Every structure is written in C-alpha cells, then in structure tokens.
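Page 37, top half.
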Amino acid sequence: MAAPLADVLDRAGAVLAELREVDLDGLVDDTLSDALLSMERLRGGLDVAEARVLSRWDAQRSWQSSGAKSGAAWLAWKQRVPIGIARQRLRHARALRTLPAVEEAWAAGDLDRAHVTTLLGARTARTTEVFDGDGHARLLGIARSYGFVSFKAACDRWSMVVDADGAEQSAADDRDAREVHLSQSFGGMWFGKITLDPISGEIVSSTLQGIERELFEADWAEATERLERPPMILDLQRTPAQRRADALVEMAVRARTAPSDGRRPAPLFTVVVGLETLCGPILELFNRTVLTPGTVAPHLTEADVERIVFDGRSRVLDVGRQRRFFRGALRRGIEVRDRTCFHDSCDEVPQRPEVDHIHEASKGGETTQDNGRYGCGYHNRWRQTHPDPDDDPDADPGSPFG
C-alpha cells in the first residue's frame, strides 16, 4: 500500500533539509560536478511528481472553491509567481497525461523544463496527431543526444516539415511583428525599442557587432598607449553598452556617407546539397535559426548564393593537403559543416571563429577537411593546455548533422 502523500512530502522535506546542510569544503571538482548532475536528475523527478499532483488537482478543479477564476490564477496567487509561469506549469501537467515517454525522460533528468516547453511548442492543433504518434519520440532522442541549440533547431525543422503552411504563417507573423520605436524625452535623451524578424535581426546584429569590434580595438590601443602596459577591461574608456551605442550611431553615419552609386551589401545564402540532417531539410541562418522557404524567398533577388556539396558523411571536396592554414573553400566548407565550436560545452556560433587542426600541424597533422574543426578562440587556446589523448589524424570531427 502506498504511503500517504503528506508522509512522503515530510520525508522529502527532511532529506532536502539534510542536503542543504552538507559540508562542501574540501570536495574535489569531479565530486561537485557529479553532485550537480545528480541534482539535475532529482529536479526532473520532482518536477514530474509535481506535475502529476498538479494534473489531478486541475482535473478535479480543486481550486474552484477558493473563488479563483482558474487554476493558473490560484497558483499565481498562492505561490506568488507570474501568471505566465503558472499557466506554463498547468500546460505541462496536462500534456504529461498523454505523453508518458516525455514524462519518463523528464523524470530521469534527461530533460529540463526548457526542453519540455520547446517540445510542446511543436505540438499544435495541426501537428498533434503526428506529434503524439512517433514524432515526439524522435525529438526526445535528439534532446538526449545533442545540445539545446541543436534540439531547438530540430523541433523547428520538424514543425516546418509536418506543417509547412503553419510554419510559413508563423514566419509571416514574425515578419509583420517588426517594429522600431525611438522617442526623445523632455530632457533630450533618446529611448528606443526594436523588434526584428530573424533575417533582418541577423543583418543588423552582425553589422553592429562588426563596428563594435572596431571600436573595442581602438579603445584597447588607446588604453595600451595611455597606460604603457596591457590594459584590463576596466581600463577601457567605454563600457560594452556604450560601445554598442556608439556603434549604432556609427552605423547610421556610414549609411549617410555611403556613395550613392555604391554597391548595396547583399546577404549570403549558402545552399547545402546532400547534407544529412536530424529531421527534414535544412534551412537556417548561420547562427542555426531555422527559416521557412517563404521567409528566404524575398531576399534571393538581392542575395549572393554559394553552393557547398557534401557526400554521405558530411565530407566536402578536399582542396589541398599541403597548406598550413585553413583558407578559402576548405575553411568555408568546415564552417558550414560544423557551425559551432568543437567543444561539447560550447554550442553557440563563435563571434571570432577559428578553424584549427585536430591533430596539430606541428606534429604532422594535415590541413584537410578531416583534420579541421571549427572553434572559438577560447577553446582553441584551451586545447593547448588540455590536450585530448584521443586527438589523432583519423578522428572524425563529429557533427550532429553527419
């Protein structure tokens, strides 16, 4: 016979109290890392246990006698959380009633609530039948095997394949939601807000970052000359936020001073042919934001297009073995193949990317696609002091797309 719920909660509370009092002094890194992973699994189990209780509580409308308008309103009132958070918890609890595989993965700590939110975002009125069939099982496998960015992209691609019309409508809604507000206060200061669709936002963001990098290098050079030593970040004359503001102004100045007959910069679209993907065709920005064909089509009349051909293992045509540095088509092929830093903990597109040898060139490593990998500057430097014994010329650089 199962123990009463109140008794179980009392014991759980006592264990948590004991856990809070554990002496952490002297624990080594591996022990602390293992503890964090164990706590993540426990958090998943606790979230699912809460969802089961919440589901029954909601089904019985246990909140109704309090006078609250809804279960979400009661949760927001009693737990003092935003109403949006309360509604999210209820949505998750209701979904678990019919998705036992999701419940099992969450309880095991394989998923976080962020995964569940993203997963259920792909479950719309038009995709429910396919999702509740084998669709969510495939996405769960990706969530267990890859980083969150890859999982989110897989969910977006799955939605685009299963409900192409809905994906196009959603993309059109995003485009229609673009807006810029800029107003001047009575004191003369300017305040603004900007909302852009994925392509427009990437154009603005990448341009702004390029100018900000120029300003950072100028600040660094000025501080070095002024202090007669390598400066620290706090020694620079401008904060990052100030440099971004100045970069925005500089971007406007350059737009005003550009020659009227100059060539308008064109976006670059990379067409990837024959690349195996996690789920359906791939159509993404370089930062892995998934796009619909309808979103891209209006830009093609003014865009530059490049083609990169891969074979069955995401292998590009080898363009030479004797080079010391990765350049040209070889570098571009590796960039498009990998797109994120090689280190497992780093799943963002590097701001200042580098293509480095897996097996070091100084030790006989060849400058080929098989021996190259995409990385951020930090991890390319990190590997010099943390050599990987598995690094060898025959190692597969790996990619969630190949």
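Page 37, bottom half:
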Amino acid sequence: MGSHSKNFPLTKHLTGDVSRLDGDDLLELAGLRKGQLDGLVGGPPCQGFSRMGKRDPKDGRNNLFVDFFRLVKETEPSFFLAENVQGILDEPYEQIRKRALKLVSDEYVLLDPVEVTASDHGAPTTRTRVLFFGFKKRRFETLDSTLFETNTSTARITVKDALKGLPARIDPRWLSEETSWRQVGKMGRGRFADSITGRVPKGVGDPASLERYENKNEVSGFLATRHDTKVRERFAQIAQGETDPVSRAPRLNLDGYCPTLRAGTGKDRGSYQSLRPIHPTADRVITPREAARLQGFPDWFIFHPTKWHSFRQIGNSVSPVVAEQILRSILLRMRDTRG
C-alpha cells in the first residue's frame, strides 16, 4: 500500500476488507454515478487457485474472486477485466467460476477466459495468466478473443534486452534501501526500452525518487543477497538455462525469457521467500531491480525497501507492458456514448 501510494500520489487508495466494500461506496469515492464507470479491473488473490500451492477450494481468499464480480454488478462499468492464474480454470474451482460469472451474465457479453503469455506481448518473461473479460454492447462493437491477440509488430524482448544498462556487480554490502540506489547505463531504443526508461506519465511517481532518476540517473532496488563461498562456487558451474541442483533455482539465459517470478508466502503462511533465478553472468541471485526489469516495470517505479516485500510485490503483479497493451486495445474499441 505504501509503495503504491508513493508511485501514484494522486490516486485514491482504499484500505480494508474488499468483501465488505459496497459498490455504491466505491462509486461515491470515485466521484461517479452508476453507469459512468468505464472499466473495473482487478486481480483477485490467486494463492488458493495456484497449481504451486495447496489448491484448497475452501481457501477463504477464493471468495474474493466472487466479490470482484459482485462489485461489477453493483457499479455497472462498461467493461470488466479480471486476472488470475491458470489453475482457476481447473475442475475443483468450477463452482466458484460459475457463481462469480452468474452475477454478471445477464448484463454483460462474456468472452471465454483467455490465457495470455507475457512474452507474446513484449515482456521478457513467460508468465502466463488467465483473463476474464465482459462488456456492455452500448459501449463496444461486438468483440471476440482477437482483442487479446499479439500484435505482429511486437518485438521479442530477451533477458539480455531487459537487463541492459544495469550493473552486473552487486556489492554484498548493499543491504539497506539507501545503499540500493545505483546509477544505470543506457538501455537502447525501442518500445520496451522506452517504457522502462523513457516515459513518465503525468501525475505519477514519487517526487524524490524521480528527481534522483532524472538528475543523477539513479535507480533503487539493487539489494544484495549474501552467498557463502560454496554457493557462489556452485552457481559458477551452472550454465545459462540450467538449474541449480540444490536450490532448484534456474540460471537465466541471456537470449531467452525469464520464467514466472513467484511471490513467496505472506506472514500468515510463514513469510517464505520466493525462489529467485540466478543472474545469467554473475554468481548470485537477481536483485529486486533486475526482477522489476524482467517483469517490465519502469525504472522510476519504486518498491518496498526490503527484498522480501519487493519480490512479493513484483511476483504478485501483472507486467505493466502487458497491461498497457491490452488496456490500450480495449480503449481503442470503446465507443464514446457519454455525451
């Protein structure tokens, strides 16, 4: 919450239990009346659905998927877009899906759930997620799954492209937020590079962080992980694209994509750190800033000052590169009927 507030200082941020959030209250806070909302976009918690977890259909967090669709029904946006993991399509969760979609099936045209892979949309990661999309006819022409198709002009972005300009040498003493700020080099040109280093939308960004970025070319998040000599020696024997036999951490391939970055567990589940890939050329795991680049976050975007929280934020996120491309596609197909 604190990091999001810093990155989006002009945005209203709500705290509290979403299951108790009322659609009318949400519209009032946004200064809108029912029917004026263009879109409701959300990513209900995925832990209960993930194929990597316990897969408990009775996990209380699963009900928040239904709550998202309840809020769609109560706010009546022109479209809705919900994101989740592939596991939500599995049979044990069929009743949850049906219960959620039934809330909006009378008022919205529903597309079949579609799987979207980030690397197909210009991000350097194979992260794949499921999108649920519905729309009101008065604001759109008839839509189909081509809405989420890959643009043929989208360039293939590799790990090498994503990490360009970042220092490969990370001092083991860089363990605090202040020592994690480092100068970065040039990244090159192109749509991905421009989204990472070029564009800073109006009204976003932490002013102090933006000043350091714009005036000194300094970026945060270069937090070190201390490895003992045996671990470094073991990492040195692992080729790019191969996996460490002990930690099961993959070594990134400069010419390939990053696998899905995971969030790890919250305090209620033991605060376990997620598995982090090994840097492609340095004998260490990646830093939060490198993870952010691989997920497609711009360099001006700041995260929590600790590694654990930073990786949780990145691992739980949707790649901004993917989100921008999909939401732009939706925007271009909307009809202005508000006048």
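Margin note: The mean pLDDT is 89.
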